[in-house]
Amino acid sequence: MEEHVYPHMYKIENAHWWFVARQRIIMQYINARITTSPETTILDVGCGTGAVLELFSKRFRAYGLDFSRQAIDFCHQRGLVNLFHGSLASYPKSQHFDIITMLDVVEHIDDDDGLLRDAYALLKPGGYLLIAVPAFPSLWSAHDVVLHHKRRYTKRRLQQIVESESFEIEHLTFFNMLLFPVAVMKRWLTKLTNSDKANDLEIPGRIINGILKRVFELEADIVPRCSLPFGLSLLCLARKPAR
Fold first, then answer.
1. How confident is the model at residue 212, as a pLDDT?
2. In this structure, are residues 89 and 111 in contact, taking their beta carbons and an 8 Å threshold?
3. Which of 71, 126, 198, 219 could bridge 146 with an S-S bond, Cβ 3.0-4.6 Å?
4. Would you say 102 and 91 are in contact if contact means Cβ atoms under 8 Å apart?
């Protein structure tokens, strides 16, 4: 991600409809599908400016990792601790986790297989890996370029890389399905008019922002229980074998 994006992310993460609704969906998903306690250890890989990590820290023994020093500094501004600046491969091997999350992170990495391999090594036996990635390569846009995405994923590709690193997939689904038609139409129009601009990180007007947030949040109860047939993102819950 370009460094100038981090201050903007820090500013909007608790207000922008996409971030706020996604945070609720992720927390509800973990609550529904994983048995946790206040002693559950969770590592948020690519924690960014810390909005999700802040939520995790209220429920679990939470740790954050990011390759960007600027991102870590913003996490400190939120009062967060247990932060590590660097790559997952360089994380201390003496510590192991119950859950590792990679929320819109894997698509930034050249060696996505290697990243999952590093996560496997840091998970306790029976531990969980939760991944969210952007879906459908055909939806590639200026937004992906600004965020330094390497790729968008098909469901089959995500399944392949997860299973190739010895994880057992427990649940794999698309999400952000309800707004999918709107996003597809928007991307087609921008390509037809040659006006593709990275404006997805701008907060729309208060009314529109509220409507989009409520629509996206409708999936909070659905995503943990179903495998949705399409959506703007993919969510995968995988487990390291207990033995």
1. 96
2. no
3. 198
4. no
Cβ count near 178 (within 10 Å)? 17
| CA distance linking residue 98 with residue 128, whole number of Å | 6
C-alpha–C-alpha distance, residues 196 and 189, integer Å? 9
Please report the pLDDT score of residue 82 as a whole number: 96
Return the residue matching tokens 């006006």.
195
Q: Tokens for 102? A: 């990679």
Place of tokens 């306690």: 37
Please give the angle made by the CA atoms of 176, 72 and 87, to the nearest 5 degrees. 80
Give the per-residue pLDDT at 197.
58
**In this structure, what token pair is assigned to residue 188?**
């087609």
Walk along the chain (243 residues) in steps of 10 and give the mean pLDDT of each run.
81 95 97 97 97 97 96 96 96 95 96 96 98 94 85 97 97 96 82 63 92 97 96 98 89
**CB 84, CB 63: distance < 8 Å:** yes
Asked if 217 and 25 touch (Cβ cutoff 8 Å), the reply is yes
| Per-position DSSP letters for 40-103, written without gaps between them | -EEEEET-TTSHHHHHHHTTSEEEEEES-HHHHHHHHHTT--SEEES-GGGS-TT--EEEEEEE
Collapsing DSSP to helix, strand or coil, 236 comes out as strand
